[in-house]
Structures are given as structure tokens and as C-alpha cells.
Design goal:
The protein has helices spanning 11-16, 23-36, 50-59, 127-144, 164-176, 201-207, 223-232, 234-238, 283-286, 309-320, and strands at 2-5, 44-47, 66-68, 80-82, 85-88, 96-104, 109-118, 147-151, 181-185, 197-200, 214-220, 252-255, 257-260, 263-266, 269-270, 276-282, 302-303, 322-323. By secondary structure, it is α/β, with parallel strands linked by helices. It has 2 domains: 2-118, 4-Layer Sandwich (Purple Acid Phosphatase, chain A, domain 2); 146-323, 5'-Nucleotidase, C-terminal domain (5'-nucleotidase,  domain 2, Alpha-Beta Complex), CATH 3.90.780. The N and C termini lie far apart (54 Å).
């Protein structure tokens, strides 16, 4: 098998210095190497998306018989054939199981049948997987039961209004990244509230499972209000993009800035269109794929790789020890 991934908005090159090679030539080369090592069949596991998979399939006739795809989360109940290559995808959110019946006749692999089934209560969990999950959870119970701090008051969560959990995340980002302003949307940070009292690592990570990375970027005094205006737009707030796994994008929350009678203030001063501001957020807000910034701005955010938001927030809470209710009313 060969695994192939899309460059994710050029992110692997931009942030990790990885070189993107021509996909078709690369698969041909690797498939040849695998056959020299004794492989009879080569299957491509693709995170390139359906459009790219179709192009790959047309160029890889006789090289791979099957592309098991992902990234665009298309549901292909019977697969899709491009010449002799079959492309399979099973949708999104683990709502379907995909099945492939393969036949090897001693010389050639053929796909005899493709089907998908909705995941339902009638489908029993695989006992081997259940046992492995239980073993892993037992091994890490002590890690997730550790108390990392104390919440003096409960912190609420909402996708539709300003809430204290996401304000806490914004405050953390501004301090961690040394920024004047921080902005973070609820859907890219939290999925539930936090109760008052001792806070365990496990409870924090249940409420904040985000894989986003803390980042910082320079924005002009015209770009910053434009980002915030988009973050407060009702249509933007209600979006449920696939990367957020079914959750609404939610309101953009602020730290170091506030909305007052429709005017953006940074600290106690109205935003200055002639100034450059240091702005913290996650990759969802700072990179263009979240829909807040324009690619034409050519912003150059830097990220605190490989730290993710729950790790950064845990460090902040551990340092503070006791967390009081964050200042509210930042959105006017």
C-alpha cells in the first residue's frame, strides 16, 4: 500500500518545510519499488480528495487497481470507476462502513463488489477493538484523572453567544503568543461547558478536543476589523464545516479587544487603521481555510507547533492554579 496526502493549503510545505512531489510520478516510482520487493498488487490510500483521485486514477491505469479515498468525505455507495481503477469513499463522521470484496486470481486483483452500510446499533462493535480501547483507557486513567487546576465558577459554553469557556481560551492565546489581540471561534475550541471545582485533565480534554495550533500574525488596522466582522456574521456563525466535525463555527471571541456600539477597540483605543497589530488565534482563524482571512492578504502566521489548544490551555490553567470567571461583554 502507498499513502498519499494533499498538501492541505500548502501547509506541509509552509510550516514543516516538506517538499511536494508530483503525485503521479511518485506513485509510479513507489509502486515499481514495491513490486521489485515482491508485491503482487499495490493499492493507493489517498487523502487527496475525489477530484484529485479521479485525475490520479486516469493516470495510473495498470499501476493500481484501487484507490481508497478520503479528505472530501464523499459517499460513493457503489464506488466510482475510472477505466480499470475503482475509487472508494465512505462519507463522513463515521456514519457509514465501507466494504470491498476483492478477488485475487493469481495474476490480477479485481474488485468484485463495493457497498456501504449505515452505522447503526445493530452493527456490533468489533470485540478486538473494544478490548484494545479498554486496555489503553486503563493505562491512561491516572493521567486523565490528575487535577490540573480549580475553576472558581462554572464556565458556560454556547455556539450562538459570547461564553466564558471561549473567552478563557482567547485570554490564554493572547498571553501565550505575546499578542495585543487574540481571537478564537467557539467551534474551533470547545464543545461543552466546564463545571466549577477541581478540574481534571480528562474533563478539560473532553470539553476542548480541538487539534488546532496556537499561532500569531501581524494584521493591519483594516484587516483586523474585517476578520472580526466576519466572525460575528450570523451566516458565518451558523456554518458547520466538515473540519469542525458537525459543530457550528460559532461566534468569534476576543481578548485585548472589544466591540463598543459597533466600533472595535483595542485596549481602550479605537482601532487605528494605520497601525499593525500582533494578533493571536488558532490556525482556523489565522489561515484562509477557516474563511476569516483573505489569501490576497498574504499573511504569514507562525504556529506553536506541535502544541495543540488543549495542551496550551492546560499549561495556562496549571500556571494560574485558580481560574476566575473571565471578563464578559467583550462583543458589546
Amino acid at each position: 500500500m502507498i499513502g498519499l496526502s494533499e498538501n492541505m493549503f500548502n501547509g506541509y510545505t509552509k510550516y514543516f518545510g516538506m517538499l511536494e512531489l508530483p503525485a503521479v510520478a511518485l506513485v509510479r516510482e513507489l509502486a515499481g519499488q514495491l513490486r521489485e520487493q515482491g508485491a503482487n498488487v499495490v493499492i493507493l490510500l489517498s487523502h487527496m480528495g475525489l477530484k484529485n483521485d479521479r485525475e490520479l486514477a486516469s493516470e495510473l491505469q495498470g499501476v493500481v487497481p484501487l484507490i481508497i479515498g478520503a479528505h472530501t468525505h464523499d459517499l460513493l455507495p457503489e464506488g466510482e470507476r475510472v477505466g480499470e481503477v475503482l475509487i472508494a469513499q465512505a462519507g463522513c463522521y463515521a456514519q457509514h462502513l465501507g466494504y470491498l470484496d476483492l478477488l485475487w486470481d493469481g495474476e490480477r486483483l479485481s474488485v468484485e463488489r463495493v457497498r456501504v452500510e449505515p452505522v447503526s446499533e445493530e452493527i456490533p462493535p468489533a470485540p478486538e477493538i473494544v478490548a484494545e480501547v479498554r486496555r489503553i483507557e486503563e493505562d491512561i486513567t491516572h493521567v486523565f484523572s490528575e487535577v490540573i487546576g480549580e475553576l472558581m465558577e462554572p464556565l458556560d459554553f454556547s455556539e450562538e453567544r459570547e461564553c466564558s469557556t471561549v473567552n478563557l481560551m482567547a485570554d490564554m492565546l493572547r498571553e501565550r503568543m505575546g499578542a495585543e489581540v487574540a481571537l478564537i471561534t467557539s467551534g474551533a475550541s470547545f464543545i461543552e461547558a466546564l463545571p466549577s471545582g477541581p478540574l481534571t485533565r480528562g474533563k478539560l480534554w473532553e470539553a476542548c478536543p480541538s487539534p488546532g495550533n496556537p499561532g500569531v500574525v501581524d494584521m493591519t488596522g483594516t484587516q483586523l476589523p474585517a476578520v472580526i466582522q466576519r466572525g460575528l456574521d450570523p451566516e458565518m456563525v451558523a456554518r458547520r464545516p466538515r473540519p469542525l466535525r458537525g459543530h457550528a463555527q460559532g461566534l468569534l471571541h476576543l481578548s485585548g479587544a472589544s466591540m463598543r456600539a459597533g466600533q472595535l477597540y483595542v485596549g481602550d483605543e479605537p482601532v487605528d487603521q494605520e497601525r499593525i497589530y500582533r494578533v493571536a488565534g488558532s490556525d482556523w482563524e489565522l489561515d484562509s481555510y477557516g474563511g476569516y482571512t483573505n489569501p490576497e492578504w498574504e499573511l504569514k502566521p507562525t504556529y506553536d507547533m506541535p502544541i495543540i489548544l488543549p495542551e496550551a490551555l492546560e499549561a495556562y490553567i496549571t500556571q494560574q492554579k485558580r481560574i476566575s470567571l473571565p471578563v464578559m461583554g467583550r462583543l458589546g
